[in-house]
């Protein structure tokens, strides 16, 4: 009897042990299996979201309403208009891209990192933008020296599959990160024409929802690579959103971030993707004088690896020395080149005999240009060289240069582009605003024309 009870107890204990072992085995198998929720979309979102920022802007609204002007006179608070969009960080030191229409005419711009990247709020420095492609570049002003940010990877140009899964990410309206999923519905239908704005037929089409606050955020593939910048949604339509293709994003970056936009003449178009390859060389430019040729692969700058496009261009744009040593590879051979950049102000002086100055808000007020377009009026002629072609063309100090040939000019870059199209010895038609004065008082301006022969 005791033996039977003992045997029965043994069987129960053995059964409990087996059940426990089975449970442990199932638990171990469950632990070993990957979480089915953490699919490719979740992984890409976790990887890319720290690169996404909310962009908030403030702009002063000019008003001719008598009551608002009276209110402003007494209380000193101009009407402020705010807008919100998104952006994507493209370098560890805080350069980012967004849509130009998000930040255009803003008097103050701030960005807020996603919660995945710490959620901090930063002021930014506007760099430049291209309205033809609707892309602008900003630079985050770090809170501490050496601060690094998570940067997105660029996809290869034209590496797009119609029907592939894509994600549109943003940080709309300051509410926090947002992601929508869809497919790439269509690649661009037509190549953009030179000097024409991108239109819908040039954009990527997706059915991933692109809300207004997502403008400027990234469109990515399942490798987490940037294939486009979210741009617009077609009103009165469902599931039709558009993004600027990565190829045009690269083109915009090359136009926005180069030595010329920092008032330094380099004169070479460099590939935005690595390796850095010289593409087009401007005649008589510092690049040509240094011996740089199309097809040269730039390997070193001042004895250090040239880095990526942003590293290389940042060095050429930086304050200080204008002289650089380049190591390039041409037809399999290494060549050492000596480059000296030329300030654009010096270029204008050489070719036209003019000292030009970009208009600032303070100059606009001093010169009484508020009702004539403000900073859009042109460039101030701050000086005319004695005996120069400019003096012979009757140009005078305090005239405003606002056109060269059939091109309107508002800044150094416009003047550089206009002059680049004209050869030495060629006559250039200049449009100028000439002040009408009484003593030191400017009474108004008249539009004038003159011609000078360029050096």
Explain what the structure shows.
The protein folds into four domains: 45-140, Trypsin-like serine proteases (Thrombin, subunit H, Beta Barrel); 153-251, Trypsin-like serine proteases (Thrombin, subunit H, Beta Barrel); 262-340, Pdz3 Domain, CATH 2.30.42; 344-453, Pdz3 Domain. The strands form five sheets. A six-stranded antiparallel β-barrel has the order 1-2-3-6-5-4. It has helices at residues 2-32, 40-48, 66-75, 100-103, 246-256, 286-289, 309-317, 344-352, 361-367, 389-392, 412-420; strands spanning 52-60, 80-89, 95-98, 108-113, 121-130, 135-140, 153-154, 165-170, 178-186, 204-206, 218-220, 225-233, 241-245, 264-265, 268-270, 276-281, 297-301, 304-305, 323-330, 333-340, 342-343, 354-358, 379-384, 400-404, 407-408, 427-438, 441-453. It contains eleven helices and 27 strands.
Quick tags:
4 domains, 35% strand, 455 residues, Pdz3 Domain, alpha+beta, globular, six-stranded antiparallel β-barrel, Thrombin, subunit H
Strand share of the residues? 35-45%
How much helicity do the residues have?
A: 10-25%
The total strand number stands at 27
The largest sheet, given as strand count, sense and whether it forms a barrel, is: 6 strands, antiparallel, barrel
The tally of helices reads 11
Short description:
This protein is of the alpha+beta class and 455 residues long. 24% of the residues lie in helices and 35% in strands.
